[in-house]
Amino acid sequence: QSTFNWKMTNAYGPGSPFYVEGPGSPTDFCAKVAAMSDGRLNIQHFAAGELIPALEGFDAVRSGAIEMNAANAYFWAGRIPAAQYFTTVPFGMNFAGMNAWLYHGGGMALWDELYAPLGLKALPMGNTGVQMTGWFREPITGVADLDGLKMRIPGLAGKVYAALGVDVTLLPGGEIFPALERGVIDAAEFVGPYQDRRLGLHNAAKYYYTTGWHEPSNTTELLIGSAAWDSLPADLKAIVETAAMACNVESYTWSEANNAAALKDLVDNEGVIADVLPDDVIAELKAVTDRVLEEGAAADPATRKVHDAFMAFKAEYKGWADISEKPLFSLPG
Amino acid sequence: MTPVPFTEILALCMIGAFFLMLLGGIPVAICLGATGLIFGYFGFGPMLFSLLPSRIYGVVTNYTLLALPLFIFMGIMLEKSRIAEDLIEVIGLAMGGIRGGMALAIILVGVLMGAASGVVGATVVTMGLIALGPVINRGYDAGVACGVICASGTLGQIIPPSLVLILLADIMGESVGTLFAAALIPGLMLSLLFVGYILALGILKPHLVPAIPAQERALTSGKQLAVKLVKVVLPPIALIVLVLGSIIGGVAAPTEAASMGALGSLVLALLAGRLDLSILTAAVRGAFITSAMVFLILIFAQPFGLAFRGLGGERLVQDAFSLVPGGLNGQILFLMVVLFVLGFFLEWIEISYIALPLFLPIFQSAGVDMAWLAILVGLNLQTSFLTPPFGWALFFLKGVAPPSIRTIDIYRGVLPFIAIQLLGVVLVFFYPSLALWLPEAIGW
Amino acid sequence: MLRFLNTAAHGASTLVRIIGQLSAWLGLALVMVVSFNVLGRYLAGIGSVALQETEWHLMAAGALLGMSYGLNQGGEVRVDIFYEKMSVRVQAFVDVVSTLLLLVVALVIAWLSIDYVQNSYSINEGSPDPGGLGYRYLLKAVLPVAFILLGLQAFAMFAHALTNLIRPVSPPSS
Ligand code: NA
Ligand code: NA
């Protein structure tokens, strides 16, 4: 029986909980695979910057120099526009719905179809759960408050906000705190209570809005080179798939538990005001999102295909969730 | 005892070859690039090198490095438009009979620029351009002049905002704000220690840091001096205030703020009637060359860093750590020694990535305060910018220094400051509240 | 032979100088673009993702194209503790070795980066941010171009150093 020594790079820096370290994280995935395979598949993990810079994992795996990379598929939106749909979609689906689509609604098959021509394969390996709208220095009482608001928000959501008059800035993670603290920006989006508290954002802005309309869940992508994958015997393939699934559940539940505790701490001890975005703001954001997504689908046939499949599944899933989970959460406490 | 693997021996050979070539007079960038490619190739074949373009692309597109070309532009514009020419001299005059006055001015500017910038090298290059020539012309010892510029220039790494602290926050799981607050007092303390050293030099070895002679000072009346101060000192100070003010006033994020300085230097030159096409062209080309030389070293450090990683250089560190006798303080001391030694041949980002993840789990489980440890690490990394032969600050200064400045002058000059910085590490080690009081007090 | 070498070296050096003098203005453009983005956001609340991305595009192109020009203008940094004590001939020998190594390293990296650009071109890589700059392979293509220019500059310096080694009087060239 042959032994495989692989390398995994990561889009996130050393020490980041969830993204690098901790239960269900990429390093935990490597440990799980090593244990389950009894050392036959050893994956050496490199956080961002240790071997290559944060967002270079896609090319590294494609070149064959690295076998695996942990990131979010939407980082590759400049290379494969449809990749966005495999991380999160604004007004898309939560953890349950997203994974129902991926595992059982044809999502994974579409993902494979999209990546195979590039010599790549992907598996979901983690999820942050629902994220937060972000931190605001001033309360948001209506759509008018968004006009001229300076917000750090990358990606598709940035384009949606921009249509409502938000001035979108793309500061790197490390500059969010000093910029928000001094009022260079009025608002910033990051992840959720646990990760945001770690960045100290509550010391820079007090209004913490929800919900994560822009990221109702967020999938961690395990990217694998097709050649490397094909070289694995069936049992090791099963181990990789199972470990990725285990991490998907474990990281999600870890996030839920830690976000719950962190939010309580932020509200009880740090004077953070957690609130829901006003209805008219949500309505506007939804209208623009529909338009933006439609534009993207119209521009690229592959995106069209994934978009339509995602939306069809979502419509059906929403019908079910509306009479199951939604009333459940409305039950008395 | 397990034998040391072949690749780790190669990693050691690579470091050895690098030093030999460096001391042999081969330019720094070439030493880094050639040893990295050659030893890396023998260690793991051609495959891993296909990652090299990714690393280089990562360096040149690294947003946080934007402050480098911008501050360099500001410094060169001040130099070429001759605005900086009289600056240090007038400060020297204003300091009167205080020996070391111009060096004190350099420290002050270093603190202010450090509070405006967080990038390695930006302050050193700017100060080297503006101040080195003038203070040597006024009879300062070349070593002292180089030392004070390098040391003051690296203060920006511990005085927030700072790239080093941002990276450490990420690696050590502390909030950026906590580390910024924790670093402020140690950073200012270090600045005061520098001031103390210069004042002591002025008393003990006055010929190294001469004041401007009394006869010459007498030639300028108090009123004339006041006018000169306004005309010469105000513009560059205004630039620093512009950069700092744009951060504090919420106009620009720390990296962007450098652009305010660069734009301001153009406006100043224009107002002074010194901005014609030939000066602009000279400044543009000069800034381009200086930035490029900084980037050349950063770019050529990539094959070296990749090879060190690929050869398992981090395992050398790990193996050494396993030999350390027990005791938490012993382990912290060992971490400090490792950081210091790695600083002789690696850049700080590589050091952070290689050394810290190995040690952190131990310290975390022992309940060590991570903010305190981060400041100790930050002070230590700052020292590594100064340690010969491979100290970034030394190379950056060498890159802009007049030809009369020899490498040995720079080495000689930084030694006392390295000692002072180590003293800073010791003080924070024995008095953790130097780092921990402020974040506690303001609730960060 | 040496004469032919020097003619070729002179041509290479001239090309590097001209390209460098032109690309030097990228630095001024960088100052203007970042300032515009900062002031535009603060004073008028305007901003564009493309202009923000332009910032680091300019820095990248400048940093890469500047390498060869910087060396062309004598900007290399070395530890001269022993070098300055060497005879002119030994210095020339060190320079021959240095420039030869530089030539090899530059060409190896140029060669490595061709695949990198090809990968980007084959999928028409653009910005992951909507509204960002497209054609990212053009930016990446600066990598091989810059390292080939660096190779040319290394060649010019090599010819100069070799001439000094063989005929220790420096010829009146660039
Ligand atoms: Na700083
Ligand atoms: Na060093």
UniProtKB/TrEMBL annotation, chain B:
<dbReference type="InterPro" id="IPR004681">
    <property type="entry name" value="TRAP_DctM"/>
</dbReference>
<keyword id="KW-1003">Cell membrane</keyword>
<keyword id="KW-0997">Cell inner membrane</keyword>
<feature type="transmembrane region" description="Helical">
    <location>
        <begin position="225"/>
        <end position="251"/>
    </location>
</feature>
<protein>
    <recommendedName>
        <fullName>TRAP transporter large permease protein</fullName>
    </recommendedName>
</protein>
<keyword id="KW-0813">Transport</keyword>
<comment type="similarity">
    <text>Belongs to the TRAP transporter large permease family.</text>
</comment>
<feature type="transmembrane region" description="Helical">
    <location>
        <begin position="358"/>
        <end position="379"/>
    </location>
</feature>
<dbReference type="InterPro" id="IPR010656">
    <property type="entry name" value="DctM"/>
</dbReference>
<feature type="transmembrane region" description="Helical">
    <location>
        <begin position="413"/>
        <end position="438"/>
    </location>
</feature>
<feature type="transmembrane region" description="Helical">
    <location>
        <begin position="257"/>
        <end position="275"/>
    </location>
</feature>
<feature type="transmembrane region" description="Helical">
    <location>
        <begin position="119"/>
        <end position="137"/>
    </location>
</feature>
<feature type="transmembrane region" description="Helical">
    <location>
        <begin position="385"/>
        <end position="401"/>
    </location>
</feature>
<comment type="function">
    <text>Part of the tripartite ATP-independent periplasmic (TRAP) transport system.</text>
</comment>
<dbReference type="GO" id="GO:0005886">
    <property type="term" value="C:plasma membrane"/>
</dbReference>
<keyword id="KW-0472">Membrane</keyword>
<feature type="transmembrane region" description="Helical">
    <location>
        <begin position="287"/>
        <end position="308"/>
    </location>
</feature>
<feature type="transmembrane region" description="Helical">
    <location>
        <begin position="144"/>
        <end position="168"/>
    </location>
</feature>
<feature type="transmembrane region" description="Helical">
    <location>
        <begin position="56"/>
        <end position="78"/>
    </location>
</feature>
<feature type="transmembrane region" description="Helical">
    <location>
        <begin position="328"/>
        <end position="346"/>
    </location>
</feature>
<feature type="transmembrane region" description="Helical">
    <location>
        <begin position="180"/>
        <end position="204"/>
    </location>
</feature>
<dbReference type="Pfam" id="PF06808">
    <property type="entry name" value="DctM"/>
</dbReference>
UniProtKB/TrEMBL annotation, chain C:
<comment type="similarity">
    <text>Belongs to the TRAP transporter small permease family.</text>
</comment>
<feature type="transmembrane region" description="Helical">
    <location>
        <begin position="56"/>
        <end position="72"/>
    </location>
</feature>
<dbReference type="GO" id="GO:0022857">
    <property type="term" value="F:transmembrane transporter activity"/>
</dbReference>
<dbReference type="GO" id="GO:0005886">
    <property type="term" value="C:plasma membrane"/>
</dbReference>
<comment type="function">
    <text>Part of the tripartite ATP-independent periplasmic (TRAP) transport system.</text>
</comment>
<comment type="subunit">
    <text>The complex comprises the extracytoplasmic solute receptor protein and the two transmembrane proteins.</text>
</comment>
<feature type="domain" description="Tripartite ATP-independent periplasmic transporters DctQ component">
    <location>
        <begin position="30"/>
        <end position="163"/>
    </location>
</feature>
<protein>
    <recommendedName>
        <fullName>TRAP transporter small permease protein</fullName>
    </recommendedName>
</protein>
<feature type="transmembrane region" description="Helical">
    <location>
        <begin position="134"/>
        <end position="158"/>
    </location>
</feature>
<keyword id="KW-0812">Transmembrane</keyword>
<keyword id="KW-0813">Transport</keyword>
<dbReference type="Pfam" id="PF04290">
    <property type="entry name" value="DctQ"/>
</dbReference>
<dbReference type="InterPro" id="IPR007387">
    <property type="entry name" value="TRAP_DctQ"/>
</dbReference>
<feature type="transmembrane region" description="Helical">
    <location>
        <begin position="22"/>
        <end position="44"/>
    </location>
</feature>
<keyword id="KW-1133">Transmembrane helix</keyword>
<keyword id="KW-0472">Membrane</keyword>
<dbReference type="InterPro" id="IPR055348">
    <property type="entry name" value="DctQ"/>
</dbReference>
<feature type="transmembrane region" description="Helical">
    <location>
        <begin position="92"/>
        <end position="114"/>
    </location>
</feature>
<keyword id="KW-1003">Cell membrane</keyword>
<keyword id="KW-0997">Cell inner membrane</keyword>
